[in-house]
Amino acid sequence: MEGKSNLRKIILILVLVAILGVIIYYFVKAYNNTTPSNSDTNTITAETTVKSATEVSSEYEDINYGEAQEVKAVTTASTSSSGSSEVVNITAGGTYDLSGEYESITINTSSNVQLNLNEVTITNSNGPAINVVDAKTVAIVLTGTNTIIATTTEDLDGAIYSKADLVFSGTGSLEVKSNYDGIVSKDTLIIQSGTYVVNSDDDGIRGKDYVAITGGTFSIDAGGSAIKSTNEEEEVMGYISIDGGTFNLTAVADGLHAVGDIVVNGGDFTINVKDDGIHADGMVEINGGTFNITAAEGIEATYVKINNGAITISASDDGINAGAKSTKYSVVIEINGGNITITMGQGDTDGIDSNGNLYINGGTLNITGNSPFDYDGTAKYTGGTMIVNGEETTEITNQMMGGGQIQNGGMMQGGGFQQGGGRGMR
Description:
The chain is mainly β. It has one domain (54-413). A hairpin with a 2-residue loop joins strand 39 (385-388) and strand 40.
């Protein structure tokens, strides 16, 4: 009798475990497929915490960089072809006017420093051309044509390398060549104006806490990513915010890459890369601008939200992709406006691929390819114009299981839908 009693207990425990597993499965499924609070429009289902670049930049407008200081340069033996060069060590705050040729400029102070570069050439074959060891904020103001060439190290990996906040402005230009990264801030990086030509074996422009750009002209050819933000230790950091500028980005990795969010409110972008045109682990939000993207994947993030802009994507993998790269957001693609044209390559490619939910609420979407849509969760169309392979439609067809489609009201049509199926997450 005791043996039968124990057997009943074991069976009861197994049944309870199975019931608990089913409950957990449907709880997770419901969480992953949460529909917007406004089921009629599906707009603003999530909002980024990223400030606009203009707002961030304004916080640096009233900094006092101090009185003009004399530049004290030391002439040293140099490995450059000229045989000798000027080395500048700045140990006090203030404003410094520089012109001519230098081997390196090092800043090490607890104060603010402004460098006015006017027809400056800095060539260093043994480290950063400009090395900010310490400072509160360093402003670099460009006048005329300026050139920086550096053969630097893995630790100090930028031709311009700063451990302090770094702010660029001016009407001049800056050409940067580096065997590692071009311009690096281990804190915040703000660019307000100027012309930048960057050729780097790794990342072109890289900030840690954030990169904020309000204007300027950029031509970047990078062996890594063109513009990157890297702080993954703080949830609200590691972002890129762009309000304007002209960008010609060529890269082996991504055009724009952030471990946090990317918010673009304006600008003119030509992006030709081998990986993602625009990649954020958190959210990509586009509120304006013109984009011509040629990439493996055009736009990729956990949450992709497009409110406005003229976006043209030519992709060899997915045009727009959402996958779980961050726990900050649910996996969603949300299109509320804009003019979006996606042309896909042959093979296992999707125009729009969400490993979660897909909402189309407005704008004009024109997709050419074998598979226009692929989603693993809920899809809903409430407005806008959709054109697939030359024909206007109001249906979001699903290629996930090769059958079935969700129409205007989000109801299932046909068979073959199964949560968790379809292509693997990217």
